[in-house]
Amino acid sequence: MTLRRLVLQTAFAALTLLLTACDGLAGDPVIVSTLTPLPPQSLFPPAAPDIANGARLYAANCTACHGISGAGDGESVLSGAIQNPGIFNVAATADDQTPRAWFSTITEGRMENLMPPWGAILDAQERWDVALFTYTLHYDSVEAGRALVESSSALSSDWQRLNPTLSDSALMAETSDSALRALLAQESPAFAALGAAEQTAVAQYARTLTLRRADAIGQTIAPPITTPEVVGAPGTITGRVANGTAGGTVPADTQVTLHFINADLTTERLFLAPISADGSFVFSDVPFEDGANYFASVPYQERVFASTPAQATAATTTLHLPITIYESTDDVSVIRIVGTVLQVSPSATGDGLEFLQVIRFRNTSDRLFSTNLSVGASGFVSLVVELPPGAAVLGMQGQERYVVLQEQYTVIDTLPVLPDDEHLVQIVYFVPYDSGGAIIEQPFNYALDGAVRVLLRSGSGLTLQSAQLAPLGPQMIGSNAFESFGATLTLNPRAALRFDLNGALRLPAAVVPANNVVLLLVTFTALVVLALMIFIVLRQRTLRRVPTPAVVQDKDKLIDTLVRQIAALDEQHDKGEINHDLYQQRRAALKARLAELMEKPE
Length: 602
Description:
Blueprint: H1 7-14, E1 30-32, H2 51-61, H3 63-66, H4 75-78, H5 91-94, H6 99-108, H7 124-135, H8 142-151, H9 153-166, H10 169-173, H11 177-187, H12 189-192, H13 196-207, E2 235-243, E3 255-261, E4 268-274, E5 280-286, E6 293-300, E7 303-306, E8 310-311, E9 318-320, E10 323-325, E11 328-329, E12 335-346, E13 352-363, E14 368-369, E15 383-386, E16 392-396, E17 402-405, E18 410-413, E19 423-432, E20 438-443, E21 447-457, E22 463-465, E23 470-477, E24 480-491, E25 496-502, H14 516-522, H15 526-540, H16 555-574, H17 580-599
Helix pairs in contact: 2-7, 6-7, 8-9, 8-13, 11-13, 16-17
């Protein structure tokens, strides 16, 4: 496998409308286009990451930029085509990042640095393999750490006690190296007494407990074998710049930039051309290379609008790259929620519920929707999604476009919404649950007019009551059975979707691996989600349209539920059943919601 297969996806992703002010690029125009959805991420490894396989994948796909040793000195960097690649052979790069964040970067890419997204090319296991290979590439003290543990009776005793925690792949995926050292220092007096170098060695050894073939850490990588590019005769690229907003115009002095990225991502060339009176443009004598990608872009109102990329072969003689620009708006009334699906399953530990929620938005105007509200280096606020009280975000599809405000259980999407665009937000989150049940109350900041579906995992012991949703019977998704509830709802902005979940929680028999529930949630592709949405809409046409009821806030019941959830969380923490940082995060969210309710007048 080579980068040749990735360039089209890379160029497309590089044009995504992220409104992100990257470091050193604040104030530069942001790029506008449409992103082809990648398969949703596996938040935790399907199996223990295989370091040797990660080394093989790294050698085949990553050395052109990151270099043989991970020093960021590959051919593409030395040629000047790529700048600021990740450097993996120093501890500082990974120390404060979690392996899951590392995995997300590999999955989604770093468009601003021309790093391709690998989510559509490598499967989840392969991405985890290469993620942990590169994450541990700087490790040089694993064997020294093993020797320290085995030679110290006090450390060995602590190790045996902590082994279930250190062997938990889900926990370790969410734990950075610095957090791992802090965890060991907190839980092991013998570890806390070690010097800094010894602590690093022991922590490196601890990381290997959730890895396969860890002896491959730090192995020498063989340089990849490259093949010459096939170049055809020069050709012509044409296009036209049009304004898709009624009454909008294209400035007469608009300059079009043609981007040419060769198949191995080692060269990018830029060509400039003016537009004619009708907005058309022509690039002549363009070199067409087999597997190379081409797209055109224009700046407009502090944004850069781009064409859909096109891939060439050596036989290509012409390409057509039209560009549509738009005026912008921050009027939230143009945004509609046209459907949402919530899939609910027990967490693998039985301490709560894991939700996969997909919300489908539509921009009903002919303008680009975003706001001028800055969220720092992450860009500008586009959509604001509130989650149920106490929810703790586990991950999102397209991680880098989101900002999570955990204490406000809110997710900000910085990706602007194109006119009449299919805009999906996919979030995986955790909600605490105990024998007293849980009230799920989710306010929407935008008008909702469409199908709502809640899917409960069959065999989970959960029951659902709601004045808004009707039981729709069993439904199979793949090989997994669910009890479905739904309706076609019309909700005004700030109205809430509300339902109660009750029942003694149990893990369905089919869910055997510790992380299987999360994996089930995140393996829905965007196409499956869209197909499910279509199914919902078609089925709801046969049902009575459910009027929007007044949502009665059972304040006392909600307060009681939150108090019990906090108590259950405290008990888990006291028993050592939950990571300390995650405990603090969830507890803070629950307490914030409780304080809000207690301060709210009747």
